[in-house]
Design brief:
- Strands 3, 5, 6, 7, 8, 15 and 16 form a seven-stranded mixed β-sheet that branches. This protein has a six-stranded parallel β-sheet with strand order 11-10-9-12-13-14, with helices on both faces. A three-stranded antiparallel β-sheet has the order 2-1-4, with no helix packed on it.
- It starts with a strand and ends with a strand.
- The relative contact order is 0.15.
- The chain has about 350 residues and is of the alpha/beta class.
- The protein has eleven helices and 16 strands.
- Strand 12, helix 8 and strand 13 form a beta-alpha-beta unit.
- Bound molecules: zinc ion (ZN).
- The site of zinc ion has 8 residues, from helix 2.
């Protein structure tokens, strides 16, 4: 079977590997059909010093496929069922796992495609407890965006920032995979959405997704624009993932008691914050990473009801690196899908 492996920083190689053994007890075998790309893949591809991993590594952190075979005691799955997979090897038994807070697992065995072998291969065996059925009517290319992109946004906006109908949210990088999802999910509950984009061509696209106000952060200081748009009050929630370039400006956009939720630092990981401002303004800063199995089910349910991911580009497996280059270029509007 084919597998796409990272053999060195920025070097991918498509190799032939032996197909996995038949699935063991509690396992299913999944035939991968679509892999969605995320910034996580880019970190792995560039080679991040903090990532403990062994090369070669099968890439791909977010995917959808079909059940190929079912092991003993693996539940109600049957061959041909469309599924997505949780992308981290959680233990399933610690307190966090038992309470459904999967992304806080105390014994996590690594993120697939980043620390351990990922999904960019024809077949793999997975614990059935980490495999989630895709509802009827949802295409696999869309479902492939549920395990990381959609569920991360679901977890950030609703579990962590507790965004409510009628509130205002600032979504950074509205053209990114998670930015596009955040605009659509926030609008779907009746929030007002202000978003930032890096070029004018993306302004109309963001408006078409439902964004109420779009700021080109290259031509306009977004802090000032947000204060103006909110009558100097500020927003209830900031959806952060840009990091160093925007973090302090994001805090200035919050109203008193506002919530900033962050899941990324694409422009750099380090910043300083004014602690006086933090406590006087009673800000809440919430770190968010990954999501729970429940968030993936919620994401798929949203897709089934018509809230679909924005797809920027679809490429073949051989063009995985081209997809990563496009992601890195910041030219994207939405998700990049790699088909098998
Ligand atoms: Zn656990």
């Amino acid at each position: 079977m084919r597998a796409l492996t990272l053999i060195a920083d920025r070097k991918l190689e498509l190799v032939e590997l032996a197909a996995p053994a038949p699935p063991g007890p509690g396992e299913v075998q999944v035939r991968i059909k679509a892999v969605a790309l995320n910034h996580l893949d880019l970190w792995g591809y560039r080679g991040m010093a903090f990532a403990k991993r062994k090369l070669p590594l099968v890439v791909g952190a977010e995917a959808a496929g079909e059940i190929a075979a079912v092991g003993p005691g693996a539940g109600a799955f049957k061959p041909g069922d469309p599924v997505v997979m949780y992308g981290a090897l959680t233990c399933g038994t610690c307190k966090a796992c038992r309470e459904g807070r999967d992304n806080l697992c105390e014994n996590v065995g690594g993120i697939m495609g980043f620390h351990v072998d990922g999904f960019a291969r024809d077949l793999l065996n997975m614990p059935a407890r980490l495999v989630i059925p895709v509802p009827a009517g949802v295409a696999l290319r869309d479902a492939a965006c549920a395990p990381i992109a959609f569920s991360t946004v679901q977890h950030m906006l609703f579990d962590n920032a507790k965004l409510e109908p009628g509130e205002t949210v600032l979504v950074h990088a509205g053209g990114s995979g998670i930015g596009t999802a955040a605009i659509k999910m926030a609008k779907a509950i009746g929030a007002t959405v202000i978003t930032t984009v890096g070029d004018d061509a993306k302004t109309e696209k963001a408006k078409a997704l439902g964004a109420d106000h779009v700021i080109n952060y290259r031509t306009d200081r977004f802090e000032g624009a947000v204060r103006k748009l909110t009558g100097r009050k500020g927003v209830d929630v900031v959806f952060e993932h840009v990091g160093a370039e925007t973090f302090n400006g994001s805090l200035l956009c919050l109203k008193r008691g506002g919530r900033l939720v962050t899941c990324g630092a694409t422009s750099g990981p380090t910043t300083t914050i004014n602690l006086m401002q933090l406590f006087q303004q009673q800000y809440r800063i919430i770190g968010s990473f990954g999501a729970s199995l429940r968030n993936i089910r919620e994401s798929l349910a949203k897709m089934a009801s018509g809230l679909l991911p924005v797809i920027d580009t679809e490429v073949a497996l051989a063009d995985f690196a081209r997809g990563l280059d496009r992601l890195e270029s910041r030219q994207v509007f939405g998700k990049i899908i790699v088909h098998f």
